[in-house]
Amino acid sequence: MKKTILLIVSVILVTGCSSLKYNKHGLYFKIPISHVIPKNNNPKILKSQSVDFEIPKSIIFIIADGAGIGHYTAHYYSNQTFSFDDFEHIGLQTTHPANQDRIVTDSAAGGSALATGEKVERKSVSMKNDIALKSVVGWAEHFGMSTGLITTTKVNHATPAAFGSSTNSRYNYDDIFLQLLLSDIDIILGGGTKYWNDTFVKIAKDNNALVYFDFKDIKIDDDRVIGLFADDFLDLKYENRYPTTIEMTKVALEKLEQNESGFFLMVEESQTDWAGHVNNATYIKNEMQSLDDLVKYCLEYQSKNPEVLVVLTADHETGGIAVYDEDADNLNIQYIDSHHSANMVPIFASGPGAEAFDAILDNSEIGKKLIQFVRDGENE
Question: Which residues, 6 or more positions from 180, have their beta carbon under 8 angstroms from its beta carbon?
């Protein structure tokens, strides 16, 4: 009887799976996608109940690019602090793009969904069917709020680009840079001096933007502020990044909080993603510590300014990171690849309206909720 059962199981394994193979990553099965998702609309998955949420006056939206459960697990067991458990509400986010044949997104499509509340195809930046989509930043400016973008990579990279520009390709760096200069965004901080040229000098001046290349020189006044502190991306955390994410966030908040109508600030810890791409555990450890420090500061700011909503999530997961203890003294970090995965990513929130994110949500639902808060805040 046992031999018969084993034979049946063997037949099922061989015939029931289109592919089965062993390699250094372990046992792989190819399985059909059975959960049909209307990818151009919002998936009908678990969402927070339809209740009247308290409306925040201002929003700090943190994107830890590429950071999934594995990143937080590695951080929990390898660093001294874990500020993420100070959030009031925690949920999960699905990240697939609009592409009908893909469930793994990129930063352009993932960031665009978070920024606009609409699914777009991979590599598209807040652009759908050649139509520019209005981001939460655009809505905030429409209602007189101040706005800001911060990143630890170049300011015209995919994620900040999704909040401040629209284009069919994330690689249209010059066009994205130009759109940021022409925008009404009050403060933009990150890298990208290699895109600065003589043509942009006049454009910046004509659009009331002061451009700084040394963080120490920044002055908070009535002009728009654009800070470019590296040729491309900022230094790694463990290579003494300057300015730090916290330093940039402090300056941005000093400027934005002067507006009595409130503000929207997007802060991207972009190199949590890059650390996953290169499968470097030390890199991940340090970038997650930078994120932890940032979260601690923002939650302390929120406690002193209870009208502010703080939300933390990711545009996708990178590396398929898993953690186990191979020996008594060390964590063993394993990766499924050096690229993005379709793994759900966590979303954390504290402040007015935070309970809206206490659910399993699609990235487009998060974008819609942020825009709703901005629009409803105006009608209070």
Answer: 149, 155, 156, 160, 161, 164, 165, 188, 226
Question: Domain spans of the chain?
Answer: 1-32, 45-379
Contact indicator for 292, 87 with CB cutoff of 8 Å: no
Q: What is the pTM of this model?
A: 0.89
Walk along the chain (380 residues) in steps of 10 and give the mean pLDDT of each run.
Answer: 42 39 51 55 48 88 97 92 96 95 95 97 96 97 97 95 97 95 96 90 91 93 91 73 93 97 97 89 91 97 98 96 84 91 97 95 96 78
Q: Which amino acids are annotated catalytic?
A: 107
- Tokens describing residue 18: 């289109």
Task: Indicate the fold that domain 45-379 takes in CATH.
Answer: Alkaline Phosphatase, subunit A (3.40.720)
By three-state DSSP, how is residue 373 classified?
helix
**Burial letters for 153-180: b for 16+ Cβ neighbours within 10 Å, e otherwise?**
bbbbbbbbbbbbbbbbebebbebbbbbb
Question: CB 302: neighbour CB atoms within 10 A?
Answer: 23
